[in-house]
Amino acid sequence: MTMLTSIMEILARKESLSLAQLAGEVGYSVREVEGFLNQLEHMGYIRRELLGQACGLSCDSDQASDRCEGCGFKPSKTFTFWVLTERGEQLVGSRLM
Question: For residue range 47-73, what is the model confidence (pLDDT) as tens digits?
C-alpha cells in the first residue's frame, strides 16, 4: 500500500496538480496513477470532485452540434479533483505521527 499512501500524502498537501504532474511526482505512468486513484476511491480513502458545470446524467451531448440534447445548453468544461475523505485524512495523519 506504499504507492497508495504516497499518493494520499500528495493529495493531503491540497495542491492543484494535473494527473500528469501527480504521475511524475510518484514515478508512474498516467494510466497507472488513474488505476491507483480508482482503487483509493473504491476503498473510500479519496473522492472525486468536479469543478465546473456539467449536464445531468440524463442529458446527452451531441458531438456534431456541441449542444446537450437533454437540456439544450452547451456543456461547459469540467475538471476532476481528487480529495481525501475523512477516512483518508485519518490514515495520512496517523502515518505522519
Answer: 998 776 656 555 655 444 556 666 666
Selection from 21, 23, 19, 26 nearest residue 81 by Cα: 19
Q: Say how many C-beta atoms besides its own lie within 10 A of residue 3's C-beta.
A: 14
Domains of the chain: 2-96 (1.10.10.10)
Q: Fill in the amino acid letter for 45.
A: Y
Task: Report pLDDT for 25.
Answer: 94
Band of the pLDDT at 22, cuts 50, 70, 90? very high
Listed in order, strand segments (DSSP E) in the chain are 46-51, 61-62, 67-68, 79-84
Rounded (to 5) percent helix, strand, coil in the chain: 45, 15, 40
Q: Which helix (H) or strand (E) holds 32?
A: helix 30-42
Calpha distance 40→24 (Å, rounded): 18
The average confidence (pLDDT) of the chain is 81
